[in-house]
Amino acid sequence: MNKFNKLAILKIIYLKYSLNLCKMKISSAILSLYFIIILILFSCLPDQRDQGTIRLPVDTIGFAQYGWQMDSIMARIERLYLFEEYHPCEDRSDDPAKLVISPHDDYTYVGPLYPAVIRQIESPVVIMFGVAHKASQYGLEDRIIFDSYNYWKGPYQNTRVSEIREEIIASLDDSMLVIHDSIHSSEHSLEALLPFLQYFNKKVEIIPILVPYMSFDRIDIISRSLADAISKVAVKHRLEWGKDFAMIISNDAVHYGDEDWGGKNYAPFGADSAGYSQAINHEMKIISSTLCGPLNPDSIRKFCEFTIQSDNYKEYKWTWCGRYSVPLGLLTGYYLEESGDRPICGTSSGYMTSIDHPSVPVDDLGMGFTAPANIHHWVGYVGIVYK
Q1: How confident is the model over 32-59, as pLDDT tens digits?
Q2: Residue 90 and residue 13 share a domain
Q3: What distance in Å separates the CA atoms of residue 55 and residue 75, rounded to the nearest whole number?
Q4: H-helix or E-strand containing 117?
Q5: Residue 50 falls within a domain, yes or no?
Q6: Are residues 63 and 39 part of one domain?
Q7: Neighbouring C-alpha atoms within 13 Å toward the C-beta of 217
Q8: Alpha-carbon gap, residue 38 to 10, rounded angstroms
């Protein structure tokens, strides 16, 4: 029920009962008071239509809920890290990003890496590829996951989901997708990006997509079709990639350590300074050989070979959080640009871990952290910008 319907009903109630009260010779002051009481009670009724179309945040500790929190966080990042100097991006061109890879961990840990990549998105519409952490709980695999929300709640205002989502869905075979609000409402990997997107563009519109378990071959099939669907919509509406729409991939790199991982040991090199150093070297090998440079299917396949077991695509080979969202998003970008003059090229905006730099102070902002950060439990983060 929208506000116009509510007002119409209020008018009917007011007219009906004002006539009855007039017949009873009640004073106009009492009549006005009666109407105010009805107005107050009626305004408290839940608006079911609006509530059903707004996706609410899940993580209210690690991420910002309010605009004033984001303003404070950005001021602290600028003051404490001067992030362009702390983690310089190799690409200094003025061209807007077509595609970026961004972390999605607690703001206190990731610090300057969020704005280092997200500030390079200038388009009004952003297609988002997220990690489906709870896919197994919902029995979801082999299909990308859309939602049906009209808005996502952001720190500054509700963020509209772009209307072209429905056109993209309509262009895809039903076997390639599922619409599932429940998993979207419980997943944090995309909501982490929204406050930074809004900080740089209050009117940004989004198209959220989650990527669950799937083999590389399945990723390749779906990304081809998704790229074709996006291309058709772009031609129809005369949308330019980079200027009118962009893509962002949510991702955290290695999850490393021998404590607080649900009883699992994720420290193949050991949980000490030597093991930390070896793990970082392995991370650099993955990033430099698969994510940086011109996009091509061979390097993207190689990323999967680094992170996914060859005999079971549901199992980690290297505990990299975005092992499905990254290849699907990158292949979609590759096929979207395949007919262009030159492939888009990825450059690093930096690499960090949750223990290699001072954390952003957030306690006084009503925020905190959702997991420990120490030599026995740490997470890696990378930012890549494709232009």
Answers
A1: 555 555 444 444 444 433 445 999 999 9
A2: no
A3: 27
A4: helix 113-118
A5: no
A6: no
A7: 2
A8: 8
